[in-house]
Amino acid sequence: MLTIAHLKRGQRAIIKTFEVENVPLKLLEMGCLPGNEVSVVQQAPFRDPLYLNINGSHLAIRKETAALIEIELL
Amino acid sequence: MARQINVALIGNPNTGKTSVFNRLTGLNQQVGNYPGITVEKKQGICKLDRGLKAHIIDLPGTYSLNASSLDESVVIELLLNKNDKDFPDVAIVVADVENLKRNLLLFTQIKDLGIPTILAINMADRMKRKAITVDVEALEEKLETKVVLVSSRKNTGFDDLKKWVVNHSQLSTKPCVNASVIAPEYFGRLKKAFPNQDLYKLWLVITQDVNFGKLERGEVKGIATFKTESESNLKRLQQKETIARYQFINGVLKETLTVDTANAKDFRSRLDRILTHKFWGYVIFFSILLLIFQVIFDWSSYPMDFIDETFANLSEWVKNTLPPGDFTNLLAEGIISGLGGIVIFIPQIAFLFLFIAILEESGYMSRVVFLMDRIMRRFGLSGKSVVPLVSGTACAIPAIMATRNIESWKERLITILVTPFTTCSARLPVYLIIIALVIPEERVLGIFSLQGLTLMFLYLLGFGAAIFSAWLLNKFLKIRSRTFFVVEMPNYKVPMFKNVAITVVEKTKSFVLGAGKIILAISIILWVLASYGPGDFNEASQLVTQQNVSNPLTEEELETKIAAFKLEHSYIGIMGKAIEPAVQPLGYDWKIGIAIVSSFAAREVFVGTLATIYSVGSEEEETIKNRMAAEVNPVLGTPRFNFASGISLLLFYAFAMQCMSTLAVVKKETNSWKWPMWQLFLMSAIAYVVALAAYQFLK
């Protein structure tokens, strides 16, 4: 399964789906929704956390959360 | 009397909501707390047309009405309670023009509650540069309300905003999204059970439990017994609701908002490339930290010296001017020196908040959180713990309040528990005087002063103790909590002077009033305990004169002896003698013991207490220092403050939990006495053991 945790800088992807149980509602509210485009703006050492641009919304999440969000590369 | 309109200012964090608030109210605002909790309540008055006044509440920033923190729950508590005296007649949702989509989520939720809602799109001055155009008329039509473009930086659009506050009764209260479509069957059951209630409100009341709980349920009778869906089903429905709202918003914005993305690559990404760089990002952060410390300790020493002198002079003046007596003494020795002890911290606290406000306003703080998260997590902390740990160098009280945005309860609790280890400004006077006494004035390698290095070591020790105990707590605390972490990375902005100034003034004021009360109270109590006593105390002058009959003493020497005798037989002296056996193994005598005990109220009391105890008339540091240097250990015949006892004292102050105000704040923030009591007990035990070991080893 390809997730945001695998996404490299410069790649763009579309969010497909995510694990409902463990993904916090807040993440959805901040714009991380299925169908939205996502790219990595910056990564901290060891690629954790990841600084993302999701459809113009800029946010940082930890790798473990990123690994719950399935994507499809563009 | 002029009619007053209640206005609630609501918005996402980083939308410039507070600058809008500052524009509307000017300095006509007050900051307090919501009853029973430490969430800041900001309110102000704004004059409108036709003699009307708006009472504006600046609600805490939130991304939605599904609260996940104490700050956010304040918003929903108010909006669901029609009987609250602050319940808004009209809501202003502040949105950032560059994040309009995300900001509209909250807007739709507020409007669905049936509250007249104006949309204020802030930072309109940035539209041109960012190549953003908004079709305001079309947007108004789609959202069925008034949309106003404002710029708090350029002060435009506010007249229009005020006009619509006055005319709020003309606004439509029709909901944007029909929440019940996400689960028609479930909402049908709800409607049957509560025919008179608004469905969306019911839904909000039910789902708050999933995220946060604690909501006052008084308004909706019987809701607790209504059989709802399982928690995971409710969560699924909430996600569905969020998606439905975004569908609506996407539809609205498709025809009303255009962004020329070619123009959007800019300054921000270039700055991010440096400031969040794997290597340079850290170099820059640590340089900024270094600069802040430099400024706090260097620059603020001038006003601090000035304040110190002013209060000493004032105390002297009162003593010389007012008729002698108990009242004059209380005023000069208790109250004025107590007040001086508070005021002296204002420069440092103000400088620290100045920097923190600038870093936050500019958007840099989120980058620090991003950079530090991974490192902090190893110790059971969060990237968001950096702000409290840095603020802790001024004062643990605001630092602990700054932990609120940490999502994981375990990470937040650990941050609260370890923050008091960082070297707060109250430890500084103690450190300075002890270092001056026991560390020689030498230079290492010809450049570094040994005293300065000792001070730096103590700061590092504080951070080290915080990090190490966080690591231990993380191992031993058995708390299961969702460890998720989301942080918005806002745009970089040039901080607005007015916002920074208001923050600095407000924070400093709340420190002075909050912590100040305790320091003042302690100084008065101390003064009373040191100025009165039973038995021998009252015959002090006779007894001392008799003892020294054979000794030719000057009047001044005799008076000093009498004062020392009085102190030893005062209430505080009796208490000190009682605890002496406990502090002797650490290298202290009863006088230091008393200073330590009184420091449990607030550390900075230490120097003042010793000043009183060593019966030094003036509070001038030099005299206290000389006095302390002259103290002799009667058993060993060595100076009381030698290297061994000095180091032992420094270490004791580095670790001990000596601050009542901090304990009170921890109690408020953790909602139980359990944690502050553990903190008090464990930190003090560590301090005792470390100081004991150091003295026994070094003596």
UniProtKB/TrEMBL annotation, chain A:
Residues 2-73 form the Ferrous iron transporter FeoA-like domain. Keywords: Iron. SUPFAM superfamilies: C-terminal domain of transcriptional repressors. Pfam families: FeoA. It comes from Marinirhabdus gelatinilytica. This is Ferrous iron transport protein A. InterPro entries: Fe-transptr_FeoA-like, FeoA, FeoA_core_dom, Transcriptional_repressor_C. It comes from the Bacteria. PANTHER family: FE(2+) TRANSPORT PROTEIN A. The lineage of its organism: Bacteria, Pseudomonadati, Bacteroidota, Flavobacteriia, Flavobacteriales. GO terms for molecular function: transition metal ion binding.
Automatic annotation (TrEMBL), chain B:
Mg(2+) 1 binds at residue 22. The chain crosses the membrane at residues 279-297, 335-359, 413-439, 445-473, 511-530, 643-666, 678-698. It comes from the Bacteria. It is found in: Cell inner membrane; Cell membrane. The keyword Nucleotide-binding applies. Mg(2+) 2 binds at residues 25-26. Its main location: membrane. Residues 4-171 form the FeoB-type G domain. It is a multi-pass membrane protein. GTP binds at residues 11-18, 36-40, 58-61, 122-125. Keywords: Cell membrane, GTP-binding, Ion transport, Iron, Iron transport, Magnesium, Membrane, Metal-binding, Nucleotide-binding, Transmembrane, Transmembrane helix, Transport. Belongs to the TRAFAC class TrmE-Era-EngA-EngB-Septin-like GTPase superfamily. FeoB GTPase (TC 9.A.8) family. This is Ferrous iron transport protein B.
